[in-house]
Specification:
- By secondary structure, this protein is an alpha/beta fold.
- It has a single domain, classed as Rossmann fold.
- Helix content is 50%, strand content 10%.
- The protein has a 6-stranded mixed sheet with strand order 3-2-1-4-6-5, with helices on both faces.
- Helix 1 packs across helix 2, helix 6 packs across helix 8 and helix 6 crosses helix 9.
- The longest helix is centred in the middle third of the chain and has 19 residues.
- The chain is globular and about 65 Å long.
- It starts with 5 loop residues before the first helix and ends with a helix.
- 28% of the residues are buried.
- The protein binds iron/sulfur cluster.
- The site of iron/sulfur cluster (SF4) has 9 residues, from helix 5.
């Protein structure tokens, strides 16, 4: 079966590469796709459906949409589009938006609290729909922007994992678009005629100022050095721990004999 376009073939190759490298989808999986209606989540659902039809393994898909309860959110359009394309879909209506209004002080940044609420709902839904994996639409630009955000503003060297097991071991969160750029996800969603639905959160857009700054920085750098994003993505998978200052990774020399003595004393 031929791909619908060169773009689709490129995406399929990149997603397959991520899936096989990190074991993101396995035989018998029921993959729950977090579908916000944004360009990235549509691209993810569409390309996973394309791969599902061609893959040598069997897996099924179910899309879930978490409605935060903001006025004007077109969850109906998401449900209709899924029905037209034969995609199983569940819309979960919640009061996350108003709960956050109650909890947050004026001017506080809501995104991390919102993400925690949404993650909790996704975990519950995964249980209810019998999902073995939860797939999210983060793409390569998200990975490298998160790396820089943590580096510049949080004092830690971390991006995000392609596969993450929840703290209680119950859920596996996967990010199959890890090698797909934001531009490719946007183009693909557009080419597939999928309707991009805004989240209608009042904070959306102006709040992530640091992320916007990082995006601008990367765009400026990419004019001079077109390969800069590719290099950063490669760097996340090519870590040299001994060349960092983390004393957990590199215990100071004085501590090494102590650690050895402890191991010997324990008889291990
Ligand atoms: S922009 Fe709004 S919907 Fe998006 S994470 Fe932040 S608070 Fe949540």
């Amino acid at each position: 079966m031929a791909y619908a376009s060169d773009l689709e073939a490129r995406l399929a190759k990149k997603v397959t590469q991520a899936i096989t490298t990190y074991s993101l989808v396995e035989d018998g999986d029921r993959v729950m796709v977090g579908l916000s209606g944004g360009k990235d989540s549509w691209a993810l659902l569409q390309i996973l459906d394309v791969l599902r039809r061609r893959a040598p393994i069997r897996f099924s898909l179910v899309a879930v949409t978490v409605d935060s309860g903001y006025d004007g959110y077109h969850h109906d359009l998401i449900a209709r589009t899924c029905a037209e394309r034969g995609w199983e879909c569940r819309i979960e209506h919640t009061g996350i938006g108003s709960t956050m209004d109650d909890l947050l002080d004026d001017g506080a940044t809501p995104c991390s609290l919102c993400a925690r609420f949404r993650r909790g709902v996704l975990y519950r839904l995964a249980r209810e729909v019998g999902a073995t994996k939860i797939a999210l639409g983060h793409h390569a630009d998200d990975f490298i922007e998160t790396l820089l955000l943590n580096l510049f503003f949080a004092g830690s060297l971390k991006a995000m994992p392609a596969r993450l097991v929840s703290d209680n071991g119950e859920h596996v969160v996967v990010r199959p678009l890890a090698y797909v750029s934001e531009a490719e996800a946007r183009q693909y969603t557009k080419a597939q005629g999928l309707p991009i639905v805004g989240c209608c959160c009042p904070a959306c857009g102006d709040l992530a100022l640091e992320r916007q700054r990082v995006k601008r920085l990367l765009a400026e750098l990419a004019i001079e050095h077109p390969g800069v994003k590719q290099s950063m993505l490669k760097a996340i998978g090519n870590v040299a721990p001994r060349h960092l200052l983390d004393t957990h990774l590199n215990p100071p020399a004085a501590l090494v004999p102590l650690a050895v003595a402890r191991v010997r004393a324990s008889g291990a």
